Fold this protein.
Amino acid sequence: MPNKVVSPKRITYEKAIALSLAQEMERDPSVFVYGLDVTDHKKIFGSTKGLEKFPEKRFFGTPLAEDAMTGVGLGAALNGLRPVHVHIRVDFLLLAMNQLANMIAPAHFGSGGKLKVPLVIRAVIGRGWGQAFQHSKSLQSIFVHIPGLVVVMPSNAYDVKGLLASAIRSDNPVIFLEHRWLYWLEGKVPVKPYTIPFGKAKVVRKGKDVTVVATSWMNVEAYKAAEILEKKQGVEVEIIDPRTIYPLDEAAIVRSVQKTGHLIVADYDWAFCGFSAEVAAMISEKCFGILKSPVTRIAFPHTQCATTRPLENEFYPNAVDIIRAIEKKLKLKPTNLKGEEFYSWENRFKGPF
Amino acid sequence: MQTFSRKNSSSRSILSASFYQKLYLIRRVEERIRDLYGEDEMKTPMHMSRGGEAIAAGVLEAAGSKSQVFGTYRSHALYLAKTQETDKFFAEMYGKATGTAKGKGGSMHIVSPEAGLMMTSAVVGTTIPVAVGAALANAYKKNGKLVVSFFGDGAVNEGVFWESLNFACVKKLPVLFVCEDNDFAIHSRVQHRAGHKPITEVVSTFYCHTGESATTDVHEIYEKTKDIIGKMRVSGMPGFLHFKYYRYLEHVGVNEDFEAGYRSREEMLPWLARDPLKVQRERLLKIGLEEGEIAAVERRINEQIERSIAKAKKAPFPAKSEYKTDVYAE
């Protein structure tokens, strides 16, 4: 049955999600997928395609009622099901913050460990193009601030399949954030089901000169920056993808900074009080004496995202920002970027990296 | 559970006696909380059920022991009617390791998932969708379990109530919504909060069964609930019941608050005249139980409560390390 959703080995992020969902639903009859428009002809950018083979009770669309639908997920999870609730934009999840922060996150604690909440909430994060301030956010820093929630940000097709399986099998509530532009990425993905443990970072690229901790799409930008700098400046950039924001693999970040002495946090969220600040604080506590430069944060500025392209481009950080930050850190001359191609809605990165 | 040794043992009289024991248990537990709260050892805000005991006892009897229940911060009556247990209850009030949630929940979050009291919440309306989700799971598993969602009349002002009702009706879920209406959302009366016709009338425009009553007679509440559950089983549609009652005490705390000026003692008097406990006690006498017999049962319940209080006071607090446990499931 799953073969219908699988193309041989290289598949896109979007298909890896659909494949993981289908396999988990086949493996465990308590898994169901629901959310606004999950069953329509667009299938959440293709990520729920193929699930229509399951009966309606296991795959259904909902009314526009984010608050209640999140509570419904909690109630179903308390009764032993494993719901996967899907949001086409993370921004809509703000309508469900009460259930997330007041009900779901403290349910296990508040019952003295009696209640368990095996619930997955998938949400697509910015950017598309011209989506402005209500379809552009990322919000991991808000979710991760709340104890009791697990926050996952897969950056490639292999990880998204394994991490989604782990999320569905977890007995904790998991916020699963998928960047829209990552949906185009292809990668080698085993057809067989597999899981990836939470709290285990991935070294995306090895290097000795500077560490870049990158979340979600920023891994693609960091990878591009690293390639250019290697070619044009002979600089070796080490990229760490934490994969799960909480639990956070602090040891992997510390290990890398101990080697390079330089840290850039390239986060896909607002900088102020954001995840990038958390990593910077953690490194200042654990690596203070060995830092060769202050920690640099590359993240959203403290403003809203505009619709018009020139302002939208200013809002989102990219590979050039990372290159310039590394030049400053390592006191390099400006890299000649002539002839280099960067990614955009029109110039899509299809990977793998 | 204490029992009457019975010569008059028709099923109705057994039920009457059982109701009285539950009503008395709830009333007495809260009386003891009122007596002891001033010692400042129960460090948890108290929202008392006093005046509304018959709703919990009657509805839960009709819903059956296998039903699942979701409540509010005012859920002492639900807990006691569902479990008739007082050891863990008082331990939780005293914040002890032997409490229902090792002291992590307290009065506003009292639960007993093993007995079917799944969740209670201190944010108005928030357990309503969770109850609907639990009902979805029961329908999914076809286990025949009914879910009862208790909330106050303030909760129907929340958007999530309407979202939840709507979804339950769309999906035809086995959930019974029970609105316990004491006229006040904290201190605000319904005329300042509702821009619509009486709530049952509005809810009746949804595809569900509705019913309402202002009785304080636990049997009438039981019958009303049994009736709607019967209809729900036939049609597969959800149910909504609206019960009026009078909150004898302040919104939060163990005292009366008539001196505050927002309501008068006079408006409570007609309710006191038909106090649910009084009504049921009179019934027991009418059906032939003797005063001494009732008093003996009351005494046994009193003793159970005193034992539980003594145990709770003596029990240890949770280890300090517990403040960081149970955040994530293993």
Q: What stands out?
A: Chain B touches chain A through 46 residues (CB under 8 Å). DSSP finds eleven helices and eight strands in chain B. The CA atoms of residues 62 and 223 of chain B lie 7 Å apart. The mean pLDDT of chain B is 96.
